[in-house]
């Protein structure tokens, strides 16, 4: 009998994800990391399966740890493991600078695993234009059980409270942050499967002489004089976000 497009066709209506007209990208995504939120065009991804860590790491003390870890991963055989020193507000950091088309809506997505309790877990997008920096950061505050963002004053502000993630060794929690580099505002955040409208929030701004570029960063910070750790996996950067 005659029928229209198959229900698995690329233009079929979907409730939870966006459709793709680019069949090459669709083929590349099959079985890939991009399963949480398929909106936007993927311009960078890292599942930390390479033999070396192609990120800039460290907070400057030389004692924090950032390394590829075969002990646990969300997908594949290894993830990025980080551990702080045992000093309040000490952090471990991994940063990657990328070149993308300017004046876009960018997205950063990652999966993270808590290692410890009294810590903060961040995914960050930092934009530089040669004279200023604009910073967008999405944080899970395990101390206060909150999802937070870095607001325009440079302080962390609660988006939602009462988020207490269970501590499971194999649990990797998804987080995504989308920002608009034209308006220098947040767009939305996704945390543990729930989407939050952040479009009223402006990015933090400061002076900077770093050449025009965009950096993405993953960070864990300890809240007490004790080490804190995290594992990150499946990092994805997108542009042309709606």
Describe the overall structure:
With 242 residues, the protein is an all-beta fold. It has a single domain (35-239), classed as Jelly Rolls (Sandwich). Helices cover 3% and strands 46% of the residues. The protein is built from one helix and 16 strands. It has one helix spanning 23-29; strands spanning 41-46, 56-57, 65-69, 79-83, 91-98, 105-115, 119-128, 132-141, 146-150, 156-161, 173-180, 185-191, 194-197, 204-207, 213-222, 229-239. Strand 9 and strand 10 (156-161) form a beta hairpin. It is globular and about 45 Å long. It starts with 22 loop residues before the first helix and ends with a strand. The model has no long low-confidence stretch (mean pLDDT 86).
Brief rundown of the structure:
The chain has one helix and 16 strands.
CATH topology: Jelly Rolls
- DSSP helical segment count: 1
Please state the average pLDDT score.
Answer: 86
Q: Briefly, what CATH class?
A: Mainly Beta
* CATH architectural designation: Sandwich
SSE order: HEEEEEEEEEEEEEEEE
SS-derived structural category:
mainly beta
The number of domains is: 1
Q: What is the 3D form?
A: globular
> Distance N terminus to C terminus?
38 Å
Portion of residues in beta strands equals: over 45%
Q: Which residues form runs of ≥5 with pLDDT under 50?
A: none
Key phrases:
242 residues, mainly beta, Jelly Rolls, eight-stranded antiparallel beta sheet, 1 helix, 16 strands, 3% helix
